[in-house]
Amino acid sequence: MDILSLFPAWLLEQGPAFVIVLPLLMGAIVAILPSRTLAWWAALIVTLLCSVTAFGLLLQVYSEGASLYTMGGWDPPHGISLVVDALSAPVLLLIAAMAVVTMVYAMPATIAEIEPKKRAPFYAAFLLCFAGLMGMVITGDAFNVFVFLEVSSISTYAIVAMGAARDRRALAAAYNYLIMGSIGATFFVIGLGFLFMETGTLNMADMSRILADLDGGSRVAMVGFGFIVVGLGLKMAMFPLHTWLPGAYAYSPTMVSVFLASTATKAALYLLLRFTFTVFDPSFNYDIVVVKYVLVGVGVVGMIFASLQAIFQTDARRTLAYSSVAQVGYMLLGVGIATAAGIAAGYLHLLNHAIIKGGLFLAMGAFWYRFGITRVTDFNGLSKTMPWTMGAFMISGLSLIGVPFTAGFVSKVNLTIAAADKGWWWAVAVIVVTSVLAIIYIGRILLAAYFGSPPEIDGEMAKRNEAPLMMLIPMWILVFLSISIGSNLFGLGDNFVMASERAANLLVGIGG
User: Fold this and answer.
1) 8 A C-beta contact, residue 228 and residue 295
2) Residue 344 pairs with which residues in a beta bridge?
């Protein structure tokens, strides 16, 4: 039976607009709901509906090809278009699915971390963040990328700051994020201004056509490209523009850490791919210089230095945060290889890392929920008091390292092969070295948890006190996905590899 036939025709036809408009409208409604439980249910249903729609759009792309949705019936370049293709559809589904996982986890997490009177506005701000990320990925208009970028960012600053009820350092983290995010958005919109001066249009497909006719354009286009790369680099926490990320991940509410780690940097990297290979073209000299030297350079340095920083962190949340900076370096290395295999490997790691890091932060939040644990030294004997939660953390950690039969292994092997095919044996060595560093910073947590003694409470050994079921279910779903991708259960690993190859072939086909 054709799965696509199960989706209503109107849903697939209006789906591109539906996944943006629904969370935007419901965000305003959820903010004024009198019941905190009703607000949670409304947010959960919205994310579920968007996930189903995103899945249908993905199937439609693979069976019928890319689709173009024109807002208000105005054809591009004069009107705003929404584009669903092999590059955007998987990321769209990733964001929507992680939003569902996060919302399920949110019920117990927000009770412990968010003040009762702020929970409905908190869910509303989350929906706005979600809508902004979906819009960033699906829009075909460059200025609307900026609009949705700001919608997502401003709401993110608010929900990060709401972590102050648990840790006052969330306020400083939100402020730092606001300053750095505003600088990134300013760089991005300045770059768009230069591109508009050069091409006279804001439609990305039209920009691409005009720049190709101009053979890359003048210095105006070059400067615009530089501003866009720096702006998106700030948003994706590209080394050394990553200083906002450790605090934002470590001190924000748990569900915010989970969602940001899984989606925010991934959406920014998607935009970098979209602009670098579709709006611009690697055949332009300035484009290939940035891709081959700048992105590869900062990616490799980030892989090494962020991994070293992760080793010396005393707070486990900051360890995972610096690990995220290092993993962005892996993705940038794949982009910088600039072959179909390299881009596919980087894109695959984008998808896999969302699942891996989501599982790690879900488990980390459960540790805090039960015992207030954040420091590495507090993990002693945790496998005996929270075995299921620690088991999920362990498997996700092994996947981050790249142990066989996990998702991390699949993407790292593909990236290694792509680098070797390019003749970049030094890059292969960097991948191996940073994987060893990951063994150190993840291994020291696992050693404490599995070989340390549980702490004593009131003179007695801490007893088993597992996380709530609504926390365990989403984290083990992500663990199961990681194992399934790594061992190719139900053909899931092949499907993820195929999705990344289709995305890479689209980029290479457009970019020449």
Assistant:
1) no
2) none
d(CA 91, CA 110): 26
CB 479 within 8 A of CB 392: yes
Q: Are 126 and 26 in contact (CB under 8 A)?
A: no
> pLDDT per position in the chain (512 positions), as tens?
578 778 788 888 888 999 999 999 998 898 888 888 898 899 999 999 999 999 999 998 888 888 888 887 777 777 788 888 899 999 999 999 999 999 999 888 888 777 778 888 889 999 999 999 999 999 988 889 999 999 999 998 988 888 777 778 888 888 888 898 889 899 999 999 999 888 888 888 888 888 888 887 788 888 888 899 989 988 888 888 888 888 888 888 888 888 888 898 899 999 999 998 888 887 777 777 888 888 888 899 999 999 999 998 888 888 998 998 999 999 999 888 888 888 999 999 999 999 999 999 999 888 888 877 778 888 888 888 888 989 999 999 999 998 999 998 999 999 999 999 888 899 899 999 999 999 999 999 999 888 877 765 544 555 667 788 888 999 999 999 999 998 888 888 888 889 998 988 888 875 44
Task: Report d(CA 245, CA 323) in Å as an integer.
Answer: 11
DSSP 70: E
Nearest-5° angle of CA 79, CA 133, CA 482? 135
Place of tokens 């007695």: 460
Q: What is the torsional sign of CA 186, 189, 191, 194?
A: negative
Going by C-alpha positions, the residue among 414, 303, 297 that lies closest to residue 349 is 414
Which helix (H) or strand (E) segment holds residue 457: the answer is strand 456-457
How far apart CA 453 and CA 463 sit, in angstroms, is 12
Amino acid letter at 364?
M
Q: Read out DSSP for 242-277?
A: -TTHHHHHHHS-HHHHHHIIIIIHHHHHHHHHHIII
- Which residues is 461 bridged to in the sheet? 456
| Burial class (CB within 10 angstroms; exposed 0-12, middle 13-18, buried 19+) of 41 | middle
Query: Helix, strand or coil for residue 59?
Result: helix
Q: Which two tokens stand for residue 116?
A: 């009762």
Strand partners for 457: 460
CB 332 within 8 A of CB 496: no
Q: Whose CA is closest to 250, among 310, 308, 298, 302? A: 310
- Phi/psi for 168 (5° steps) reads -60, -20
Tell me the residue type at 184.
G
